Amino acid sequence: MMTTGPTSGGIAFALQHATLEGKITIVVLLIFSLISWTVIISKFRQLGKAKRRTGEFLSAYSEGNTPLDVFTRNLNFPGSPLYDVYTAACEELKKQMVKYGQKIPFHGMSAVRISMERGMGEAAMNLESGMIILATAISGGPFVGLLGTVWGVMDTFSGIARVQQASLTAMAPGVAAALISTVAGLMVAIPSLFCYNYLVTKTRGITMEMDNFAAHLDTIFSTEYLRARETSDPIESIEDHTPEASQRETYPLTGSAHPGVV
């Protein structure tokens, strides 16, 4: 008589004797596993592309004659978070230069910094997209499998109680069928856990590189395009802004000083 290996035979035996609830649990976990692997493959491709495109962008940026050289030449590096931050900052800088000329005032440079920070936030959200699915698979997969196992064991003991035959032969099929749900849950969670940790580490590295580049870009833009402060006008002292006693405002009926008046 032909026999199968212990592993494949055990899985086949458990699936053959699984209850309807157990089969539903396994199907749900299988769907969750497919979704998780889709996210894993997509994130690996995204981070690989981001690293490759970022290298190309930094090479072109370092070869430029001016900080805006890549932007004015309309060079595109889609998929690079650093390029997205750079583009957001350059677009706002160009708007400010149209209004104020080659040298922009301090509040114009503040607008450039805000655009840069907004670009960093959008790039970070794009890098972290889909990670919640892996985190859910890690934490939820084993519990869904455990639910199927407990449900299967409960059905097994209920069946034994009905037929009043407490033997290992009667219990084994039901218990084996119930445990396959836990196996399926762990098969969803374990690969997701390893890939999640790796992807989080890579994402943090790219985010740190993006922060460093944004700080560098802020320094370069401030050096090249920030208008020097005017020093010819005397700085007004605090006393010049202190209201006279006749100008102090009071609240009606109380006589207390108006907020903000010293």
Q: What does this entry look like structurally?
A:
- With 262 residues, the protein is mainly α.
- The protein has one domain.
- Helix content is 74%, strand content 0%.
- The N and C termini lie far apart (100 Å).
Structure summary:
By secondary structure, the chain is mostly helical.
Helix content: over 70%
Largest sheet: none
Distance between the termini: 100 Å
- The tally of beta strands, per DSSP, is 0
Which stretches are poorly predicted, pLDDT < 50 over at least 5 residues?
A: 1-7, 232-262
Mean pLDDT: 82
Shape: rod-shaped
Number of discrete domains? 1
> What Rg, in angstroms, do the CA atoms define?
33 Å
Count of helical regions: 7
Strand content: under 5%
Computed structural class: mainly alpha
Order of helices and strands: HHHHHHH
